[in-house]
């Protein structure tokens, strides 16, 4: 599983002109599910995201989402599984089938909710417009393999 995390002062996602999710201060998590990912990958990603110190406190990276009362906007992004090795067009062979990917993406969001983090989502499989205001900017990557952060 590949996840891009961006610290934001606000963010929103719309589908066909309709707002489907929005948050104030917190993080946008773009989640890419790859072939072979499982429940352990979703849980490890959510645990790391919930506890990651990426907000300022006494030090620049000192506080986590729960410390600052932040929210999460979790958006599925299969293009994170894209490979640019050959040619000029990305290959998405590593992307998981949608029927298997959607429950794992939703599990990341559910785990964050269970950790007490207000969490909104995009719409799986839809063409979305994502608006966000980067704070910092702070952008980090989470990669998992067999349920372990790598």
Overview of the molecule:
It catalyses: glycyl-tRNA(Ala) + H2O = tRNA(Ala) + glycine + H(+); a D-aminoacyl-tRNA + H2O = a tRNA + a D-alpha-amino acid + H(+). Belongs to the DTD family. GO terms for molecular function: D-tyrosyl-tRNA(Tyr) deacylase activity; Gly-tRNA(Ala) deacylase activity; Ser(Gly)-tRNA(Ala) hydrolase activity; tRNA binding. Homodimer. The chain has 150 residues and is of the alpha/beta class. The chain has one domain: D-tyrosyl-tRNA(Tyr) deacylase (D-tyrosyl-trna(Tyr) Deacylase, Chain: A), CATH 3.50.80. Helices cover 23% and strands 37% of the residues. Strands 1, 2, 3, 4, 5, 6 and 7 form a seven-stranded mixed β-sheet that branches. Helix 1 packs parallel to helix 3. It is globular. The model has no long low-confidence stretch (mean pLDDT 98).
Order of helices and strands: EEEHHEHEEE
- Envelope shape: globular
Number of domains: 1
β-strand number = 7
The major pleated sheet works out as: 7 strands, mixed
CATH topology: D-tyrosyl-trna(Tyr) Deacylase, Chain: A
Helix content: 10-25%
What structural class should be given to the helix and strand makeup?
alpha/beta
**Poorly predicted tracts of residues:** none
For the record, what CATH class applies?
Alpha Beta
- CATH homologous superfamily assignment: D-tyrosyl-tRNA(Tyr) deacylase
Tell me, rounded to a whole number, the average pLDDT: 98
State the end-to-end CA separation: 10 Å
Rg from Cα: 15 Å
Tell me which oligomeric state these chains represent.
single chain
**With helices defined by DSSP (H or I, 4 residues minimum), what is the helix count?**
3
CATH architectural designation: 3-Layer(bba) Sandwich
Please indicate the percent range of residues in DSSP E strands (runs of 2 or more).
35-45%
Family: Belongs to the DTD family.
Organism: Enhygromyxa salina
Enzyme class: hydrolase
Catalytic activity: glycyl-tRNA(Ala) + H2O = tRNA(Ala) + glycine + H(+); a D-aminoacyl-tRNA + H2O = a tRNA + a D-alpha-amino acid + H(+)
